[in-house]
Amino acid sequence: MASGVRGAPPQIHLAERLNGIAPSMTLAISARSRALRAQGVDVCGFGAGEPDFDTPEHIKQAAIAALQRGETKYATVAGIEKLRVAIAKKLATENGLSYEPGQIQVSGGAKQALYNVIMALVNPGDEVIIPAPYWLSYPEMVRLAGGKPVILNASEANRFKITPDELDRAITRRTRLVILASPSNPTGVMYAPDELAALARVIVERDVLVISDEIYEKLVYGDVVQRSIGSLGDDIFARTITVNGFSKAYAMTGWRLGYAAGPRAIIEGANVVQSHSLSNVTTFAQYGALAALEGDQGPVEVMRQAFAERREVIHRGLRSIPGITCVRPDGAFYVFPSIASTGLGSIAFCERLLEEEHVAVVPGQSFGSDEHVRFSYATDLATIEKGIERFARFVKRLPIHSTI
Ligand code: PMP
Ligand code: GLU
After folding, report:
1. How many domains are contained in the chain?
2. pTM confidence score
């Protein structure tokens, strides 16, 4: 050391807010399968939910052009005006939601948009209702804000959907927010419009707020119509924060672009959070997002059709395995089969599956159910077929217990 000052290594104590907060398991599993692949192992990866398609060319070109004409400076905290105008137009025409550009924040992925809104709304001790199975980052975001996640278990018999009565019973004086995702990660199920309307009635009557995570809205395959809960009336609109992004529909995961739209005061609060953390999303990347919204939507449909075909193959494959049951997903690119009959916990199950058969799936425990595992089928059909074959072979080796 140049100064010659010596001391014992420092004792590092992380902030208490990190107590019990797990790193993202979805990202960890993907990192693990990438590392195995780098060692030459033939891994069938069903880890993180990330489209295997590349970003459509016109979107890339728009960002390249923006970079070349010098869009390389700080931008408005909430996002460039043109992009917020385009998002407002999209939300009005496609979702029946009328937001002003001032009610929209562009952030570093839907993930950060959610985080900013939660930081802006949740006080220490406030309760946030999260239906389970849930996307694993929701409870951790609430905890990071000092709030209390209240996990509301949805029954598998009701296709992992909560009922209005269940929601009503979970709401207390401390409830601030409810977080809904439809289509859902990790189950892929969707609420039909009348089911959403029934939940909206409870939210309005009990006067709480709702975050509607609509990141998978364009990836729907069945008969269920996708609806934005905020479009179901003025009272629910006034209590809704709509979250969406570009990662899934436009295969733009690495770009880190998402947004939140909601009551002006909430978005302004989220902008304060963003002004002291991110400042703004990479300026030239925002022009890519603009092209995504304003350009040809053909590639979205091509990807949707590919996912639709994969859904059939993976769901049929899983259901044909003795001992495995699996709710049929309506959208997104996940399936959430039950492994209850194997008697193994989901972490042990996934570790053994990866070690013995080189198939990477995510333990259901991270999503609030230890009796399930999650497959992301955002991968090619050949990998899906091979992965299911290996999965079936693995399950066959386990003693199957009756779950009845
Ligand atoms: N919401 C849900 C339900 C998700 O699955 C994800 C992860 N893909 C996100 C939000 C965040 O997506 P991103 O930050 O890439 O926009
Ligand atoms: N949301 C995706 C998933 O659930 C990507 C990883 C993450 O952000 O958690 O796999």
Report:
1. 2
2. 0.95
